[in-house]
Amino acid sequence: MGYRLIADAAVVIHLAFVLYVALGGFLAWKWPRTFRAHLGCALYGLGITLIGWPCPLTHVEHWARVQAGQDGLPPEGFIDHYLTGVVYPAEHLLTVQLAVTALVLASWTGLLLRIRRNRRTTTANHA
C-alpha cells in the first residue's frame, strides 16, 4: 500500500510540475520573485523534451509501481503514458509542445512588459 501511495504522489507532483512549466510564468506576473524558479523548471522541461534528460519523478513512480507489484511506467515516460493519446491525440504532440512553448514565451514577455511599465511608473512618481 505504501509503494502505491508513493507512486500516486509522484503522479500528482509530476502533473503539478508539468502545469507549472506551462503556466508558472503567469504566476510571476503576481509574484516576480518566482520567475527564477519557473525559468529553471522550464529549462529542465526543455532538456527533458529536446535532449532526453531523465526525469526523477518518472523514475520514482516506476520504481514504486514495481515495488507495489504493478506494471511500471513504459520507457516513454509520464507524458506519453498519461497525456499523449489520452488528453490530446498522439499525432498532435508537436503541436502541444509548440503551444506550451508559445505559452511560456508569452508569459515571460508579459512579465517583462509589466516590469518595464512598473519601473516607468515608479520613475515618473519619483520625478
Query: What does the radius of gyration come to?
Result: 18 Å
Structural class: mainly alpha
Q: How many helical elements? A: 5
What percentage of the residues does DSSP assign to strands (E)?
Answer: under 5%
Indicate the percent of residues in helices. over 70%
Number of strand elements:
0
Distance between the termini: 64 Å
What gross morphology would you assign? Answer: elongated
Query: What is the domain total for the residues?
Result: 1
Order of helices and strands: HHHHH
Average per-residue pLDDT, rounded, comes to: 93
The biggest beta sheet, please? none
Spans with pLDDT under 50 lasting ≥5 residues? none
Q: Could you please describe the fold and organization of this structure?
A:
With 127 residues, this protein is mainly α. The protein has one domain (2-126). Helix content is 76%, strand content 0%. The chain has 5 helices and no strands. It has helices spanning 2-30, 35-50, 56-67, 78-83, 93-126. The protein starts with a helix and ends with a helix. The model has no long low-confidence stretch (mean pLDDT 93).
Quick structural overview:
Helices cover 76% and strands 0% of the residues.
What are the SSEs and their pairings?
Elements: H1 2-30, H2 35-50, H3 56-67, H4 78-83, H5 93-126
Helix pairs in contact: 1-2, 1-3, 1-5
